[in-house]
Amino acid sequence: MIATQDKTERLTDILDKLRLLGPTLRGRAPEAERESRVSDETIADLAATGAFDIASPAEYGGAELTVRQQLDVIIEASKWDGSCGWVVWAGASTDWIPAGSGPRVLEEVYGPEWAGPRVAGSSHFPASKGRARKVGGGWIISGGPWTFATASLWSPFTNLGCIAEDEDGTYMVAAQVPRDELVFLDDWHVAGMRGTGSVSVKVKGDELFVPDYRGVDFRRITSGDIESGLSGSLWKVPALGWSFSLMAGMSIGIARGALERFLERSSGRAIRGTTYTNQLEAPLTHLMLAEVHSKIQSATLMMRANAEETDRLGELAAAGTPADPEYMQLFSARILVETAYAARWCAEAIELLQRNSGATAIMDFEPIQRSWRDARIITLHGALNLEALSENYGRLLAGMQPHQFAGITTLDRFTPASRPAERRSSR
């Protein structure tokens, strides 16, 4: 286990290196958009900052930062280029999958030297095209392609969600597949987050055998049923709190970067249709900036609180006193809906900045237009359907159970005892 002081020192070092690298990341962003992926050079540079080690186990030399500390890293990387932030987030927020899959998978993923994200994930929301069939010694997986496989271009393994059907019913299997068994499709041609290289993947051939230890019932991973052998409390935190607190960090970072860029380019710029020769001296700019600040700050404070609560719940579980199932279900639902709100507020803040930046803000070379597109893309993520998440959280507040569905964001993994709605708390 890494001492608190050591973690703080590693966090400071990573953030300092990211700030130095930041202008280079921003300068490379247009090329990454044209290529539909950040360059291998950028991946190597990010790896040199330690950004890909923030959620790696201490037992394998990783920084194993707290979720709250990881949030700061995602924000800083995203401030310079949303696509870089997304790739760092995908690496960090997926580390709980191999940790929940058992010691052999852990050793394969974290044992060797590697500069870049250690594992990617695809189609856990749930999988709809991948299939898994149990055979002697393992699984036969088929189907696909598996979509939105962020970080798969640079990871030694990609974890594929596959649907299995047998006497136990229909459920999802998480299949850990080495990169040399995959085919990467050239299908990442999108409106925003273009540099993430979130291509679809297929297995080579019509079927692939996956040994038993690499194919795990996803319910066992989400429940923490398999002992990892890792000692830190990070491995006991709720997965949704970990993944989605960090996800909001992308929106916050992109919005902060857009605000900084707006202030840089607005000094001395005239506002057409007015007598203002310096946009930063105009009251209408001041009013807009206050609204932008409030949206970004609201998202930041909410996600910091959620990350800290995620860490606290991990410490409770590690001490053998986990929170009760009812609270865990309510917390998980709240994390999801608040992440969706944070993404929306940050996207709205950037839209205000872009709308007040003039016609040149639509140019490819201008970071504000890229921030505007990237932030909106986050709000469209399959796990951030604001209306659906709001309904599920509202149902819990009203004393009802949420909708039952399969996948990584399922809320019925907890089975709380029924209690009157008035005894529930939103915090």
Q: What is the distance, rounded to the nearest whole angstrom, between the alpha carbons of the first and last residues?
A: 30 Å
Q: In terms of per-residue confidence, which ranges show pLDDT below 50 for 5 or more consecutive residues?
A: 415-427
Over all CA atoms, what is the radius of gyration?
22 Å
Task: Report the CATH topology name of the largest domain.
Answer: Butyryl-CoA Dehydrogenase, subunit A, domain 3
Largest sheet: 7 strands, mixed
**Helix-and-strand structural type:** alpha+beta
Strand element count: 9
Report on this structure:
Residues 247-385 form the Acyl-CoA dehydrogenase C-terminal domain. Residues 28-91 form the Acyl-CoA dehydrogenase/oxidase N-terminal domain. Pfam families: Acyl-CoA_dh_2, Acyl-CoA_dh_N. The protein has helices at residues 4-35, 40-49, 67-80, 82-93, 96-99, 103-110, 218-222, 239-266, 283-318, 325-355, 367-379, 386-397, and strands at 119-122, 130-135, 138-143, 157-166, 169-178, 182-184, 201-203, 207-211, 215-217. The chain is an alpha+beta fold. It has three domains: 4-99, Orthogonal Bundle (Butyryl-Coa Dehydrogenase, subunit A, domain 1), CATH 1.10.540; 118-217, Beta Barrel (Butyryl-CoA Dehydrogenase, subunit A, domain 2), CATH 2.40.110; 237-423, Butyryl-CoA Dehydrogenase, subunit A, domain 3. The strands form two sheets. Strands 1, 2, 3, 4, 5, 8 and 9 form a seven-stranded mixed sheet that branches.
